[in-house]
Amino acid sequence: RPAIAEPATTASSEGMAILQNKERNSPPTTNRARVGDMDLRGLPPRAPQVFLNRNHLALDRFRQAGMQVIELCAPHGFGKTTQLTEWHREAVLSGEAAIWLSLSGRDDTSRLIQGLTNAALRVGRRDFFSASFAEWIGSSTTPSQALTAWMYEIAQSHQDTLLLLDDVDRLPPESRSEVLDYLLANAPGNLRIALS
Fold it and tell me: Is the pTM of this model over 0.90?
């Protein structure tokens, strides 16, 4: 029968000391980590290689109909995110500014507005938000004031803009009522919104 090795108490003690020291010396979690998370949420997912193109859902049809808000409703797994990804691609190819934001249950009002701002910054157009404006948005304590300023910046860009919001159903109720409803009711004429 093979001998069972006794646990090395000195080795494990040394390992614990190294881990504790490493934790003490590691930098604290900062806004940078949260901004990185928001940056990832501002990227549309990779489009599937095979996509069933549905002509009745082409972005051009909605443009020509003058629709400002498009809502995709379907059960889980029916391709809502994939359709939003296709609209994002169509908007970019047509020269329209396309802002993508994946939403989550952690999006309180200030985090949601900061996410919208970071996603707009990601578009990378000179006629969009400046870094100083983004900092101001991040420090604003009044959601309606920050969101009004956000919409004003979009309006002043004079650029047709498509805002794509994925997983709206995950938003906390206060974010839906204070931010999303306000955004939908007061969106400037050059901003179209697609929700799933």
Answer: no
